[in-house]
Specification:
about 270 residues; Meta-cleavage_hydrolase; AB_hydrolase_fold; Rossmann fold; 12 helices; globular; alpha/beta; signal; nine-stranded mixed sheet; AB_hydrolase_1; AB hydrolase-1 domain-containing protein; about 20% strand
């Protein structure tokens, strides 16, 4: 067995932290209330000046490793153009809480409180997979603060039948075995579904009334949330929504084809409404 200091995970973690640091972001811990502490990578407030006014972009990760492992290429790409905020959602990474709440709404409220603590008044939100559910609820709760929304590979329109089909594709009994793997076998299943080659209800859709612009980005080979869900979501969200499909990618197009993904998102966020 290799000594711990040669661990690939440890070495790659060091590399990721350097990537975030060289992008102008620092690791921070913010107490949003008496129960919850959020860890995030964010611009160093001591190094910002009035001349550095840029729009703000909040990146919300999906199930799996902490945010640092999921948004590295986006942090590097978007930092020159945006004030980028990359938090660990509660129960992930180094974010902790004493609360017994476990819902996507609780996550959304926590992220909204985080942005208030950081004194960010308006911001774009991009969420992938589970993070897309959180982004949806943030836009619904704070339409006056959330500007543009990017939903990447996130079946926020998921129905019970879609849930059952996912379990069949993965050959497991519980969604948690896919989304929160605890064994090497479960991790391989998640990887097989996510890389190319406990949601049971559809949220209320008020997108048309509360959100000015929505971008949906999907991999054409997504096995977790199949492509048909992207088209259905586009229909539900109406004419204000743009759908972009990235060929030859699955559930994590932001990693599998980061160049294409980043340019699509940048053009959307920087373009006129």
């Amino acid at each position: 067995m290799a000594p711990s200091f040669l661990s690939f995970v440890s070495l790659y973690g060091i590399y990721l932290r350097r990537c975030f640091a060289t992008s102008g972001l620092t690791s921070q811990f913010i107490d949003i209330d008496d129960h919850t502490t959020i860890h995030l990578w964010a611009p160093n407030p001591d190094h910002q000046t009035p001349q550095q006014q840029k729009p703000s972009l909040l990146l919300l990760h999906g199930f799996g490793p902490s945010a640092m492992w999921q948004w590295r290429r986006q942090a590097q790409f978007f930092s020159p153009h945006f004030h980028v905020y990359v938090p660990d959602l509660v129960f992930f990474g180094d974010s902790t809480t004493k609360s017994k709440e476990r819902s996507e709404v609780f996550q959304a409220v926590s992220m909204g409180q985080l942005m208030e603590k950081l004194q960010v008044k308006k911001y774009h939100v991009m969420g992938t997979s589970y993070g897309g559910f959180v982004a949806y609820h943030m836009a619904k709760l704070w339409p006056e603060k959330v500007e543009k929304v990017v939903i990447a590979s996130s079946g926020v329109n998921m129905r019970k039948a879609d849930n059952m089909e996912l379990l069949q594709r993965a050959n497991v009994e519980n969604v948690e075995e896919i989304m929160l793997p605890e064994t090497a076998t479960q991790l391989r299943t998640l990887t097989r579904l996510a890389i190319s080659r406990r949601f049971t209800m559809v949220p209320d859709f008020f997108w048309k009334d509360v959100i000015n612009d929505v971008l949906i980005v999907w991999g054409d080979k997504d096995q977790i949330f199949p492509l048909k869900m992207a088209y259905e979501l586009k229909e539900l969200t109406g004419k204000k929504t743009r759908l972009e499909i990235i060929q030859n990618t699955s559930h994590v197009p932001q990693i599998e084809n980061s160049t294409r993904f980043n340019n699509i998102v940048k053009n959307f966020l920087c373009g006129s409404s």
